[in-house]
Design a protein that fits this description.
Layout lengths: L1 H60 L7 H7 L2 H17 L1
Length: 95
């Protein structure tokens, strides 16, 4: 009986350690997933705000071809869309 109890106690301790290790691994995965989700959300908000601003600014300054920033931002990102829009906007000042 004593051997059976000690075996059950050892098995229970092993299971508890496995659960704690899996919880630690899961929490680290959740932290990294949370960080990447936060970064993705920031980028999406930034591109949406840029699209709204570029539309308003293009109407105000009569920027031609401003709509090209929409696919540039959707397929590449803000790193292409913003310089492209500024290039189009610069053309109205050089004319």
């Amino acid at each position: 009986m004593l051997i059976l109890c000690s075996c059950l106690a050892a098995h229970r301790a092993t299971l508890r350690q496995k659960i704690q290790l899996s919880q630690c691994a899961d929490s680290q995965d959740h932290l990294s997933a949370g960080a990447s989700a936060g970064l993705s959300t920031d980028v999406l908000i930034s591109i949406a705000v840029f699209w709204v601003w570029s539309r308003i600014d293009a109407q105000r300054h009569s920027v031609r071809n401003w709509w090209l920033v929409l696919p540039a931002g959707a397929f590449v990102g803000l790193s292409l869309a913003l310089p492209l829009y500024l290039y189009f906007r610069q053309d109205i000042y050089e004319d």
